[in-house]
Design brief:
The complex is a heterodimer of chains A (499) and B (104).
Chain A: H1 2-5, H2 7-25, H3 27-55, E1 58-61, E2 72-75, H4 77-100, H5 116-132, H6 136-154, H7 160-191, H8 196-202, H9 208-225, H10 234-240, H11 243-268, H12 277-298, H13 302-317, H14 320-324, H15 328-363, H16 374-377, H17 379-393, H18 399-414, H19 418-442, H20 455-459, H21 462-472, H22 478-486, H23 489-494
Antiparallel strand pairs in A: 1-2
Chain B: H1 3-24, H2 28-52, H3 60-91, H4 98-103
Helix pairs in contact in B: 1-2, 2-3
Classes of the chains: A mainly alpha (499), B mainly alpha (104).
Chain lengths: 499, 104
């Protein structure tokens, strides 16, 4: 019983301990240990989600020190949803990476690959901490921990391109983190508080300093989430990273900073005091959907196409803010749609990057024009991209369909129909770039000899297929997501989800 | 001008200088040092606020935040310097773009 009360902190401590273990024992045995750690990490997360479903939001004072001085962990429905997403994708990345990276006793071990497990588990722990923390300064620390491990993971291969992309990412990360901290100092100066729940009641009477602080914090988080026009660092960093890392970055890391935006905008800031910021975020989101999709359409490399698709899909997440002001059923529907979109995009995008990694290993390159015949030579990979593509386009029964349906529905109910028009246009553009890719895969391979790949590499293609299938069938999980969303503090405030 | 206004103002100046350096300077070491300017600027703002928030004794919370921030900034700087060294070994460049390299 008492152990169950420690679930929030266990979700952080277990992967952190795994990271330390992986570093001490070295790369040789750590693949198995890492698999064990990922199962051990998933257990407290799932138990925590069950507890939130059962008895509402859970609060945990770390070390027995409560607010305002101590750090409080808050697991509400929204946090539980993101934790489960991190857990599922994290598990898949771990299983896949065990086959992706050469083990030290075979082939030539890539430089630094032995550090993958340590850095990856460290990033997993930091992401869980970022989602669970209810303290705005602790968010800064978690953002830096995620950023540091993410940059190190991008540069694992030590190629010139990866180092360049990693450093751009690092500089963007420093700018974002420091701007966020400047915002925190202004907020603290005007309120004397760091705890989000206490801030929420103190900010019912906002001052110029507190509003400026919050604006700086949110602007910094937009840079970290790579919302257009602050997306410049994302495509190269996500494409240059080793594929398991690309999957984790695109599916999880951008969602982590988005989660904090969601917390600050909907939970911490008083409704009605957003001062046009909500509409501005919606406009940026709409621009991201169009710009990211158009860029994905013209890319000639597979991993860059997938990365620009992330720029586009991140845009949908921000449509909730202009719709939130309407409150009631519109907010419920838009909020639920955002949760489903985070989940379905996380699963589908991770599957696409993992599948792109297998393409790179089996065919030796990721030039889209030269990938004709993939459907015949690697049908599992083609099926993965087709299933993930259904989610990107938003066709039933995928999670992308449910998400777009809910967001567009909220938009039409509120009377601001143009957000729904953006959602529909985004789906059509996604269809254009996914069909262009699939058409190449279906084309005849010609006379080019079929490259041979070790069975260990070929086997990894089942992991992305499993993820893509999960995102394809996600509409059936919407009732559970709805229940989780109802346990969230936002929806508790507006009184439940519309049918 | 008393320290309570001087510190935040100096901090804001340092922060702005850092943002300019990070975006405009091409040499990678300049960018790293600009990143440290950003950090020092924020820390000055925090320290200035710590002295101001209470009449009798300084508030320890912003000081604790500054200490944490310094630790994080040291780690970031170390990682950035290690990456620059590897990048220089791999490419012989000290900027992102070979065109900028010739101008320096």
């Amino acid at each position: 019983m008492s152990l169950l009360e420690h679930l929030p902190v266990l979700a952080i401590v277990v992967p952190l301990a795994g990271a330390a273990m992986a570093f001490v024992t070295g790369p040789r045995r750590s693949a198995l240990e890492c698999a064990a750690t990922s199962v051990l990490t998933l257990v407290p997360v799932l138990l925590l989600a069950a507890r939130v479903l059962d008895s509402g939001p859970q609060r945990y004072a770390v070390g027995g020190w409560g607010g305002p001085l101590g750090i409080v962990l808050l697991a509400d429905g929204t946090a539980a949803l993101f934790l489960v997403l991190i857990g599922i994708v994290g598990m898949a990345v771990t299983v896949y990476a065990a086959g992706y990276f050469p083990t030290p006793d075979e082939e030539h071990p890539g430089p630094g690959h032995g550090l993958f497990w340590t850095l990856w588990l460290f990033m997993w722990a930091s992401l869980n901490a970022l989602v669970l923390t209810a303290d705005v300064f602790n968010v800064y620390v978690c953002l830096e921990l995620v950023g540091l491990s993410a940059v190190a993971l991008v540069t694992l291969t030590e190629g010139a391109e990866a180092l360049r992309a990693g450093m751009r990412y690092l500089f963007a990360s420093i700018l974002g983190a420091m701007t966020y901290l400047l915002g925190v100092s202004l907020l603290y100066a005007s309120t004397g508080l760091l705890d989000m729940e206490m801030l929420s009641s103190a900010l019912k009477t906002p001052s110029v300093a507190s509003s400026t602080g919050l604006a700086l914090m949110i602007a910094a988080l937009l840079l970290k989430t790579a919302l257009v026009p602050m997306h410049f660092w994302l495509p190269t960093a996500h494409a240059a990273a080793p594929s398991p890392v690309s999957a984790a970055l695109s599916a999880l890391v951008v969602k982590g900073s988005f989660f904090v935006v969601l917390r600050l905008m909907l939970d911490v800031m008083p409704p009605g005091h957003l001062g046009g910021a909500d509409t501005l975020l919606g406009v940026f989101g709409a621009a991201a959907i169009v710009w990211g999709s158009v860029q994905a359409l013209v890319q000639t490399r597979l991993k860059l196409l997938v990365a620009y698709s992330t720029v586009a899909q991140v845009g949908y997440l921000f449509l909730v803010f202009p719709l939130a002001g309407a409150g009631g059923a519109v907010l419920s529907s838009a909020f639920l749609g955002t949760g489903v979109h985070a989940l379905s995009h996380g699963l589908a995008k991770a599957s696409m990057f993992l599948a792109a990694g297998v393409v790179l290993k089996r065919f030796g390159h990721d030039r889209i024009a030269d990938l004709a015949g993939v459907a015949r030579r690697a049908p599992v990979l083609a099926a993965t991209f087709a299933l993930a593509g259904v989610t990107m386009m938003g066709l039933p029964p995928s999670g992308g369909f449910a998400a777009k349906w809910l967001i567009a529905g909220a938009s039409i109910t509120s009377g601001d129909w143009w957000w729904a028009a953006v959602v529909v246009a985004g789906g059509l553009l996604a269809a254009a770039y996914m069909f262009r890719l699939l058409a190449t895969f279906m084309a005849s391979p010609g006379d080019a000899p079929e490259p041979a790949a070790p069975l260990r590499v070929v086997r990894t293609e089942w992991v992305p297929l499993a993820l893509a299938t999960a995102s394809f069938l996600l509409v059936f999980a919407v009732p559970v997501v709805t229940q989780l969303a109802e346990a969230g503090s936002v929806l508790a405030r507006v009184g439940g989800v519309a049918p | 001008m008393n320290p309570a206004t001087l510190y935040p103002l100096a901090g804001a100046f340092l922060f702005a200088t850092g943002v300019y350096g990070l975006l405009a300077r091409k040499h990678l070491l300049h960018k790293v040092i600009s990143g440290n300017f950003l950090g020092s600027g924020v820390f000055l703002v925090l320290i200035g606020l710590a002295g101001r928030s209470s009449a009798e004794s300084p508030d320890p919370v912003p000081q604790a935040m500054v200490l944490t921030g310094i630790v994080v900034t040291v780690a970031l700087t170390a990682l950035a310097l290690a990456l620059i060294k590897r990048y220089h070994t791999a490419t012989g460049l000290t900027t992102f773009d070979p065109v900028d390299e010739e101008q320096l």
